[in-house]
Queue: 2 jobs
Job 1
Amino acid sequence: MNHEAATATAHRPSVLRFALHGLEMVIAMVVGMALLGPLWSWLWPGLPDDVTAQALVMATNMSIGMAVWMRIRGHGLASIAEMSAAMYLSFLVLLPFTWAGLMSPMAFMTAGHVLMVPAMLIAMLRRRREYGW
């Protein structure tokens, strides 16, 4: 394969590249939770008793892990801010239902994580070229 063909192939938009980038961010989020979770537990021993604080701390841990990885991958601050907002938005939308007693803490945490996926997808599709599609 000549140099021009190799360059064109390397820069061709790809659903696979887009999906892999999303997977990388999910892995970075899990790493953020795994590394920062124990720190929060040590700093804030009563954290497990407050589902609101738990969700916001978890969103922060995921955002930090993901933001570090996105910077390593060369993303700008606007993209990082949008993706971080997706971490919080999924929980913030559901908090009033939890506070009103209409949703259990477990259902809240589960639904928050499930809603995070489409929120991230929307952020990625908004800047699809940046994410390889």
Note: The CA atoms of residues 52 and 80 lie 23 Å apart.
Job 2
Amino acid sequence: MHIDALLLSRFQFAWVIALHILLPAFTVGLSCFIATLEILWWTTRKDIYGRLSAFWIKIFAVSFGMGVVSGIVMPFQFGTNWSRFVAATSNVIGGLMTYEVLTAFFLESAFLGVLLFGRKLVPQWAHALSATFVALGTLMSSFWILATNSWMQTPVGYTVVNGRFYPASMLAIVFNPSFPYRLAHTVTAFVVTTAFVILGTGAYYLLNGRAREESQVMVRMSLFFLTIMVPLQMVIGDAHGLNTLKYQPLKIAAMEGLWETGTRVPANLFSIPDDEAETNHFEISIPVLGSLYLTHDPNGLVHGIKDWPKRDRPVVPIVFFAFHLMVGLAMLMLAVIVWGLVLWRGRRLYDNRIWLRVCLCATPIGFITVLAGWTTTETGRQPWTVYGLMRTADSVTPSLTTIDVALSLAIYVLSYLVIFGAGFILLRRLVRVGPVSASESDTDPGTDGRAARPLSAAMSSPVGAADGAKLARAASASEKKGGDHGA
């Protein structure tokens, strides 16, 4: 492998976005969950929903702040590392990014303060409305970001003048052929990711004998939500696969490790693809099944990787293993859900410690699946930034040196380790403290006449010093009691 500025720039972008995407994968779903809790509290007047909302709002505040800080870095990379890409595509994607700021970011920032600090200052319906608008803002942000990415995958609605892309139809650019499928598939993955975090958190408290009422609500709500969303995600993924087969058949061939074009192709369950030899080693496959699920026809034609020249192919092993990891984890998700439904039917959902430990271990499964899916999508698009039109090698800044990118990559790695390390410690502390009374959940911003400091909704103890000390002692005791359960 030849180490140069292009390769290091790709590593740098992968590092930044791989960590950053974990936060939208969590906050999009969490904002929707908080909005649901707020509406349920407003309509049912059950205090349990208020306690849960107050607890998860604190976690959302920290996660949202980490997302903003880690996301700021990404635009700088376009200017420093990918200036030729920006010069060629800015007339198209610049407008989409502007729409994201004008709609999603402004909406989120306008109502986030009300959500964090307004519980005692506005009517309950207004607080529920602010939670709804914050959730809508996160969804709109996903809309514009995925519209941009989808256009890079399936570009339409443009004209090229002197090597630059210009919009011919903004409607066609936004609603490009892969966008509806990518939006549905990604947003569903985000909410599934959050649901597994909520399920694992509820399991953690049940295993440690804490916050039993709140834990049961978390486990019950997340389980039944996942019962609907995970099978739906599989259906959407199938439709997305059919769309990809039509517009990016090489990506599908790499995902399946399929080298030869043919009909009645097998489903490659496992193999080690070899780019140089153009073959698979140790292959385990099921005859005909590949054509059946790829084309919905057992005699369907599927093009193999060899139909394209080597210079136009992605790195097949990366695409292949990322895709199979994503599918394998989806199967594990489904198994956990079915097991939980069986326990619920037998009225043992909250007391089966083996299943609860499995749920605790499955807390990060959504994040890993999102990363695997993102790797499949983006690596499968290579060697193009704008699919079929602009190569990644032609997108990098020409004046960059290997030393320049190596230095900036080291700085990014160090800074992200600090940001995410500190954020993880704070989130872990909040989970260990656990839910508190809804009436005590908000920091009163006006007790001393000064504005609350940033993230005080997450950092400040909403109770008195003595009660705060009790909570800390309780958390410490639960850690000793919990032992091997972890956070």
Note: The radius of gyration is 24 Å.
